[in-house]
Amino acid sequence: MLSVICFSCNNHYTKHVAEKKRFKILFSNNPNPAVDAILEEKEIEKVIFVNSGRHLDPNRDKQLNLDVYTKFLEQAASKRSESEYVVLDWEWIYKDLFAKDINSERCKNAFLQLEKCLEHGRKILPNKKWGFYNLPICHYYDYEKWRTKNLRILDLLKKVDVFYPSLYDYYRDDNPYAGKKKDEVYIRKNLDVVFDLNKLLDKEIFVFVWHRWHYSNSIRPLYMIDLPEFRNHVAKIFAFKKFEKQVDGIVWWGSEQYFYNIKSKALVEEMKGYNDFSEYYENLVEKYLTVIIDEAKNKQIQN
């Protein structure tokens, strides 16, 4: 997976106003010697990404597996000691977390398990910044409904250091039903909710982006997004401002090795003309990372 942090910025509202905004880029994707060299050259930090199926809940019983989780964090500590940010990704428990009956056992268990993730993780990696993937939760529709749902989990959001909302691009700009204008509304409305919550809690905000169309895109699922559209999507996120605050940065997510291993139709087609996967992967990172860095610098200058 890919996460990118670019330029550092201060976390407090008063200093956000006083200082010129600088964005950070974080990278979360599969390790690769050539790609790692690019990241080092551009001073891009990898996040520690904790996957639900492999590291939190391998039995899928919605119970934190402390042995598996502990082992992963101890390994991560030795391999990525320079990483400042941790992302906990346990998406399938969110359905219980946002269950209609907030007093139900499933809802209470979800809150408890996510709370345990934070508490146990901080004991092993005490000097990191912790948060959950896509919490506060974002959605393509029903923004006010999800605003209310996010307010329900305020006690959990108080405990994190970072908000990691996810704003993947679902549809092409030329889609007649959900094109560029709706994508811009989607970004604005969701960040509106996130920033309103953040005014209460004052956390860092790193938005997850992906360079591929979402699975739900029936026309081009998992194909790479055209660079001009990706640039526009990223630019809109960097440009958003509310309460004199902007996002702190972007997490660029990906899982190229996985899609290569399963012979994804999109990736197989995209690899034509390359000698091997490593060459393809290196080229992809160079192209999309350049766009993210350019837009971070552009918006920094404009603001």
Detail the topology: elements first, then pairings.
Layout (H helix, E strand, L loop, with lengths): L12 H6 L5 E5 L4 H9 L3 E2 L1 E4 H5 L9 H14 L5 E5 L4 H4 L7 H20 L4 E4 L10 H10 L1 H4 L4 E2 L16 H22 L2 E7 L16 H13 L9 E5 L2 H6 L3 H6 L6 H26 L1
Parallel strand pairs: 1-2, 1-8, 3-4, 4-5, 6-7, 7-8
Task: Walk me through what this model shows.
With 303 residues, the chain is of the alpha/beta class. It has a single domain (13-302), classed as Alpha-Beta Barrel (TIM Barrel). Helix content is 48%, strand content 11%. It has helices at 13-18, 33-41, 52-56, 66-79, 94-97, 105-124, 143-152, 154-157, 180-201, 227-239, 256-261, 265-270, 277-302, and strands at 24-28, 45-46, 48-51, 85-89, 129-132, 162-163, 204-210, 249-253. A 5-stranded parallel sheet has the order 2-1-8-7-6, with helices on one face. A 3-stranded parallel sheet has the order 3-4-5. Mean pLDDT is 90; it is low at 1-18.
